[in-house]
Design brief:
The chain is of the alpha+beta class. The protein folds into 5 domains: 6-92, Zinc finger, CHC2-typedomain (DNA Primase, Chain A, Alpha-Beta Complex); 104-246, DNA primase, catalytic core, N-terminal domain (DNA primase DNAg catalytic core, N-terminal domain); 247-368, Dna Topoisomerase Vi A Subunit, Chain: A, domain 2 (3-Layer(aba) Sandwich); 370-444; 457-593, DNAb Helicase, Chain A (Orthogonal Bundle), CATH 1.10.860. Helix content is 51%, strand content 11%. The longest helix is centred in the N-terminal third of the chain and has 30 residues, at 104-133. The radius of gyration is 32 Å and the shape is globular.
Length: 603
């Protein structure tokens, strides 16, 4: 992947007013020249979240989060910086052309990816046009009507239809100029003979209702096709193969639409099928995802952990559904997710339950979902006699293997208490079944949020002046600031500010600078940008700079005088050190002759 040029970042920041962007997520109330709201990043009763339109920054004076528009979207949407930039670029209709190095292989991969994304986007439109307008798709439209999926919902989810033809998609794509190799790489077509790459190709998806699979920021990267006939021997669902765009185990269907619901609920409703998810989402249950298959992978669990702390599995109430729930447990537990199971009545799934009983009844079923280990023990009790010591021990051993996968020690101890109480086994006896490394309680190793320590007052004031006032900044940049920064502890952030090309009077330039900082530094700087400026900023900058520079000069003088006392220095080095001492003393004498409006700290 390439890098996004600075001029493009500035263009995107300038096109996305921070008040409008944040206001599109939740309501803001004007408070004088700023806007306020309850902070979305921590629980609070009084609004401490402030948005400054003049500086194009936000700051929460409760939890400390702050920064520019890229930082906000990244935090709120759980996106990386590049993905937040792309989302805001799409919002403003700004194309992103990334700068890449001279590596021709990288260039080829980049162009191949762009071509595949374009092909998937155009194929999505073609499939959807088939569904909505073509006579041959009438059975698919009737099927959606029977599932209470309206044309508007079908459009919103970009549903489509692949005709019952061996080469309809192939001909369409070739007519649009796509090459055979690209079509094979996309997975839209496949070889008749996998052993012979030169053999004919044909459409992978035929006579199927098409569900586009999107990545986190809404680009179509694959398809899932559902067959309409119930009495066929063909697979009910057919997915795209793994491609340069699509890794089945690393994508959750619907996540690009449901992220906000997941974050707000802190719980994910997990269902098996795409129609289940769409029905739940359109009924207002927006905290829902579906794995690409039946069971969770480690990659999908890792993604889900970014948004929620708890998962409710809503798999079908048959042997396959129960097995899928059991296989999902390990990756979910390894990422310290609480797992519950909402059992579906025989012959029902989330889609049919919501259509029959309504969203409220289904939501009540979710609220009553049982802990996974209770579910497991009840299931074991149906097939084993838990009054029999041998059978109970066998179940305990199976559960111990699973409990051992819980990384968080507090959660593991809680699970052990619950399991031993249900089984009627002494906790000490159950603990002996765990691997030795898991038996003893160990403190939770999770780290609290990193907070950048605020520098000393005089350094913070110079940072503020360099950020906010052009004349003060010009003065500071003209000084020997690199030497002072290198010799003065706590001035690293001041060095970054002076090194940058930011323009104090340009909010877009400030936003670009903020995006280069670590998150904790961005929060700190956004707080400074909210503060009032002192009068006569350039004069204040001169005075405080001299106060910062004086200790540095004294440290240099002390080091030079100490080196002169060493017994083994060359004559040339001695002369150079003597000149340095004279020069430093002269600078210090100049300080003593200057009058100042405040006493200098000479410590």
């Amino acid at each position: 992947m390439g890098t996004i040029p600075d001029h493009t970042l500035e263009q995107i920041a300038a096109a996305n007013d921070i008040v409008e962007v944040i206001g599109s997520y939740f309501p803001l109330k004007r408070a004088g020249s700023t806007w306020k709201a309850l902070c979305p990043f921590h629980q609070e009763k009084s609004p401490s979240f402030t948005v400054n339109p003049q500086r194009q920054i936000f700051k929460c004076f409760g939890c400390g989060e702050g920064g520019g528009v890229f930082k906000f979207v990244g935090l709120y949407e759980h996106l990386s910086f590049p993905d937040a930039v792309r989302k805001l670029a799409a919002r403003a209709g700004i194309p992103i052309i990334e700068e890449r190095g001279s590596n021709s292989e990288d260039d080829r991969q980049h162009e191949a990816r762009r071509t595949l994304l374009k092909l998937h986007a155009e194929a999505t439109e073609w499939f959807q046009e088939n569904l909505l307008k073509r006579e041959f798709a009438a059975p698919a439209r009737a099927y959606l009507t029977s599932r209470e999926i309206s044309p508007g919902v079908a459009k919103s989810w970009q549903l489509g239809f692949a005709p019952e033809s061996w080469d309809a998609c192939l001909k369409w794509a070739l007519d649009r100029g796509y090459k055979r190799g690209t079509l094979l790489q996309s997975g839209l077509v496949k070889l008749r003979d996998e052993e012979r790459p030169e053999s004919e190709v044909y459409d992978r998806f035929r006579n199927r209702l098409m569900f586009p699979i999107c990545n986190d920021y809404g680009e179509v990267v694959a398809f899932s096709g559902r067959i309409l006939e119930s009495d066929t021997k063909a697979a009910k669902y057919l997915n795209s193969p793994e491609t340069p765009l699509f890794r089945k185990g690393k994508i959750l269907f619907g996540l690009h639409k449901t992220k906000r619901g997941l974050i707000e609920a802190e719980t994910a409703i997990v269902c098996e099928g795409q129609l289940d998810l769409i029905t739940l989402f359109e009924a207002g249950l927006t905290n829902v995802v579906a794995p690409q298959g039946t069971a969770f992978t480690d990659g999908q669990a890792r993604i889900l952990k970014q948004f929620v702390n708890e998962v409710v599995l809503c798999f079908d109430a048959d042997a396959a559904g129960e097995k899928a729930a059991e296989r999902s447990l390990e990756p979910l537990l390894q990422h310290d997710l609480i797992v519950r199971v909402a059992q579906m009545p025989a012959g029902e799934d989330p889609d049919s339950l919501v259509r029959k009983d309504g969203a409220e009844a289904f939501n009540a079923r979710i609220a009553e979902a049982r802990d996974f280990f209770d579910f497991w023990i009840d299931r074991a009790a149906k097939t084993s006699d838990l009054t029999n010591l041998s059978a109970k021990l066998q179940v305990a051993r199976q559960l111990a293997e699973t409990v051992a996968r819980v990384h968080d020690p507090l959660m593991r101890n809680e699970v052990i208490s619950k399991v031993t109480a249900r089984l009627g086994v002494a906790p000490a006896d159950f603990a002996n079944l765990l691997p030795k490394s898991q038996r003893a309680y160990t403190p939770n190793e999770s780290q609290p949020k990193t907070v950048a320590p605020a520098p000393r007052h005089e350094i913070a004031l110079l940072c503020l002046l360099a950020l906010r006032d052009a004349a003060a900044r010009d003065f500071l940049v003209a000084q020997d600031w690199r030497e002072v920064v290198e010799e003065t502890p706590g001035t690293e952030l001041l060095g970054k500010i002076l090194e940058s090309a930011l323009r104090p009077d340009d909010p877009t330039s400030l936003n670009l600078f903020l995006s280069t900082l670590a998150p904790e530094e961005e929060s700190l700087v956004s707080g400074w940008l909210m503060q009032k400026m002192p009068l006569h900023a350039e004069m204040v900058a001169r005075e405080w700079w001299q106060g910062l520079r004086l200790p540095a000069l004294r440290r240099r003088l002390q080091a030079a005088e100490s080196r002169l006392k060493l017994p083994q220095i060359s004559a040339g080095e001695e002369v150079a050190l003597q000149k340095q001492v004279v020069d430093l003393r002269g600078q210090l004498d100049e300080f003593s002759r200057l009058s100042s409006n405040r006493p200098l700290d000479t410590r």
